[in-house]
Amino acid sequence: MKRKIKGTRKGFTTGACSAAAARAATLGLLEGAVPTQVESQLPNGQRVSFSVTDGFCKNGIAHAVVIKDAGDDPDVTNKALLTADVRLLSNAPGEVVIKGGSGVGVVTMQGLGLEVNGPAINPVPRKNIEENVRMVGAPLLKTQGLEVTISVPGGQEMAKRTLNARLGILNGISILGTTGIVHPYSTAAFRDSVIQGIQVAAKQGQDTVVLTTGGRTEKFVIAELPQQAQACFVQMGDFLKYALDTADKEGIQHVVIGGMVGKLTKMAQGETITHANRNAVNTDLLAELAAEIGVPEDVCSDIRAAETARYAGERIEALGLGETFYQALGRKVISTIMARYKTSSFDLKVLVCDFDGNKLAEIAQSD
Fold first, then answer.
1. Full-model pTM
2. pLDDT higher than 80, residue 73
3. What is the set of domains in the chain, with CATH numbers?
4. Angle ∠(110,306,286) on CA atoms, nearest 5
5. Which residues 6+ apart lie within 8 Å of 345 measured at CB?
6. In whole numbers, what is the pLDDT of the chain averaged over residues?
7. What is the reported pLDDT for 188?
8. What confidence tens digit (pLDDT) does each residue in 105-143 have?
9. How far is 78 from 207, CA to CA, in rounded Å?
């Protein structure tokens, strides 16, 4: 049987679809009828038209659904019904309140950058939902507020195929997305594009490649390394092994990895493909690094029992040892990777940033 060739068609995130549904429902409140098509603005500023289904207005609530198209990414939320219900708040003029409904996970643990007991709607999508609501709902907001409830029918079942429960996100999926666009990171086509990107840099005579795991880390390293040519920057997604193998094969002299604590921990523990749905973060490793820099044993125990690397960073930063910890993590990344590439042509540097793109540490192989 001939294997089906996977493509590179991009899709849209749960956050982008939620924002589009919220925008359509808000228009329904304003105009008395929910449109069947809505142009919504993505977090990256791009404007995209979405089809809207099941739109209606009843008892002061406007309801709209956008069906997620994940493109060629094999995503468990593909075809999910991202649903928005919007109603007026007479006692809160100018306010936009965003809530999670059925099928949207509830956060039960620290370390995710979200409010405990609140909905698993990440900061960028939350902001994007509010922006789209405000863009079209301004006339209503002059005298009233708007409450937006995002729900996902079947979200509880979808979540069983993710690591959400391990992360303390219960009873539903997360509303995610930093640009609004889903890249097919899991496909062979994307892996090949990573290899090709490094080959292009080498063919242009570049001696350095800067590898990132996504849009936020790429933006961070571009700002940190303005002297590097654009061809040097390659979004490797989760394909660390293929990126490094290609850099070695092409004779690249300097490799820089830009990342946040979660993906870097995966690298430090020896994962060569860092996708979230493969192996969990090794919090024992994080606890060991914490102990080595003098973090008290009770905090180390909490880190060991947690499910996210971000939790470790937050606890250690609170002790004033954040930079020391990120330096130790960067050194561990370098030692783990270079143990695999002992005869390689390249040296390695790690740049660490937080979830807002702020620099936390810089570690070179010689450090």
1. 0.71
2. no
3. 11-182 (3.30.2110.10), 188-364 (no CATH)
4. 115
5. 247, 248, 251, 252, 253
6. 91
7. 65
8. 999 887 778 899 999 999 999 999 999 999 999 999 999
9. 40
Strand positions, DSSP E, the chain: 11-12, 37-41, 47-51, 53-58, 61-67, 81-89, 96-100, 103-104, 106-107, 145-151, 169-170, 172-173, 181-182, 208-212, 233-235, 254-259, 347-353, 359-364
Tell me the sheet residues that pair with 351: 258, 362
82, amino acid identity: L
Asked if 285 contacts 254 with a C-beta cutoff of 8 angstroms, the reply is no
Lookup result for tokens 């304003």: 30
What residues contact 270, with CB distance under 8 A and at least 6 apart? 336
Band of residue 189 on the pLDDT scale cut at 50, 70, 90 = low
Q: Give the dihedral sign, CA 340/343/346/351.
A: positive
Tokens of 161: 């195929």
Between the alpha carbon of residue 150 and those of residues 6, 83, 164, 236, 364, the distances in Å are 31, 6, 18, 32, 44
Task: Please state the rounded mean pLDDT for residues 191-199.
Answer: 85
Q: Does pLDDT of 8 surpass 80?
A: no
Residue recorded with tokens 């294997």: 3
Q: What six digits make up the tokens of 337?
A: 């990777």
